[in-house]
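Suppose you are handed a protein chain with no further information: no name, no annotation, nothing but its sequence. What can you learn? This example shows the usual starting point.
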Amino acid sequence: MLGVDTATASVKIKTKDGREFSVPIANLSPEDVTYAKAKWEELKSGAPASAPSATPAAPATPAAPGATPPPAAPAPAAPGKPAPPRPALTVLPAAKFKIPSATEYLRSVKKVRPRLLQTAEGWAYLKSMMASDPVMTKMLENIKASGEKLLETPELTRVYGEQRSTVTPGSKAIYRIAQLGVLHYMDGDPRWKDRGVKELNELCNFPDWYPDEAEVTADFVIACSLAWDWFRDGLNAQQVTKMKQFISEKGVDVLVAHLDGEPPPATARGQQPGASDTKAKPKAAPKKKEEGDKEPEAADMAVASAAMIAGLAFIDDDPAMAKKAVDAAAKVFGRGMLRFAPAGIWPESMEQGDVVMDYAVMVLQSLRTAVGNDFGFSMLEGIPQSGAARMQLVGTSGQLFNYGDARSATLSRKWVSSWLAGMHGNPGIPAVTAGAVQGPDTAFLGLAGFFIYNNPHAAGQGVADTLDYVVPGGSVAALRSAWNDRNALYVAVKGGDNNEPAAQLDIGSFVLDAGGQRWAVELGAESDRVSGAKPGGDRAKRYAIYREATEGQNTLYMGENQKLDGKSTISSQLSTPERGFAIVDMSDAYSAAKDTLRGVMMVRGAQPYVLIQDEYKLKGSAPVIWSMHTRAEVAVNGNKATLTQAKQTLTMQVISPEGATFTAEDPPEQKEPLGSLNGVKVLKITLPASKGETRIAVVATQAPEVPAVPLMPLAEWTPKK
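A reasonable first move is to predict its three-dimensional structure. Written in structure tokens, the prediction is:
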């Protein structure tokens, strides 16, 4: 580091090969900022400053406050340039975190543009990275080719009807503006700015922004806020006046109403102020409640994030609108960020957490560029862990642990991992690639997200330092036999909270990968065309549906659904190079039993295997069914089941209780509009009604012979100190 430019809020650095360039302070991690401050004092005083440790002491997965991280089990190095060493992190405990007030968010916004996602210095830094990074150069070429396709396409037009997918006009608007913004600052051709102004103008000519679907409205607000920040000097006075009013009435007012639990105002539909709104209340609006008695859901976080970004964009052009937006957002955003604690996992599902983190990262990055800091959110317990969680909750088959109402088995917003790597170090993800040319109907940030958030940690190959992801008190655990091996074994299991509106009654459910295949599958969400399937409605009706009910999960069924308010966490865990395990305390989920535990163990080595062990004490006499859903072909022979899929074989064997056997059955017939379950089999162990303590233990392996597995009570899995 050579110096600090206080006028541009950047530091000047010199690389080993002699190149010099400036890095915006907003692009530095908190630890880099600390080092830069010390180095700056050294440069001013002449006293030596201590350099950051070359080998950070913090693990890739920061432990929850007070917890001991698992021992390292390094992954084999992936080919390519390695990522820089991960920085030592100071995680802020959730219990002690002070959520900023609305006034704090807006108090110190810098009245310069651009200020959302990147400053002028930030864009210059990204351009300097390209000088020595051929991947970034190729990435920009792909973005430019995508932009050329966009120029051949008309501006976005309104599509009528309910928006059922994530690819909506709003999400397409974000994509278009993001690509045009990158090209405007990186390429400089005036065509990109001209088209950005045209897209913004057309969006503000829509009759409305889907006021009954606040999440879609949120995407329009984000797209227009970015366009306003990046292309503001291309607007004339008439456009400025018209667009401010439109964005306020059709966008921000809808977001504020949603966050306050109110229907959208009449002006959001083009009616005059004070007119009677005869439309139904918005489908996504929360019931009006006192502040603080409702945990923010994914939809609320999308809306709050959009309102926050609008506030940062418009504070100098329309202070009243900005304050109104941030006042509403501040009641939700901070409380929502706390929900990632302790393990970096959003309670509704990993899929919904991907969505929430995408919106949240846009806010945090914009706070860093517009205000100069993110008020500690990037170091808030759960956020530093999120990057590792996103990596670890993807199995060796390449599929996500898609529990809950997930509709996909992949993370769709992978650029988020690049930003997290820049803040907390690369936990083990591969280096970002140049991607491919995208069409004009792509949704959300797309390739521009990877470019805007690119940094040395994301650009290098990461190396994971543990084979297991288990945080005591967390809701999900994942174990694997090896990294960088598609044929490795992988198992993930969940606890969670059945009271979450989008939850399925799936405490204890698991997925299992081996040989590049997923053997134990999650069925995902039921079609929202099915009466009662949508979260937030009649829960008795929702949980009579097979996919949502306990019977449709890979867990224990004790003659009835799990309790609707049942909660479960990881109660015990261990990770060593030889084995890893997690124990889920499911006691609160079942009325028919007490002390109900599920232990999942991964035993590594030349012929690894997975052990799934359940222990419970029935209060009365009830039958118990152990279930696992699979799309493999299943052949059952007594206590052994042979599963075949894509020329791979998995053997499962019941080793307890003695005499227990497998059956393979079809799930219940699903008639329209229920989603099809064709090709799904249910592997079951059915135990007759009995009282008292019971242990069910099942081994899964691809080894030629099922190993002899010594059984011990779950209480003895943890070695005595």
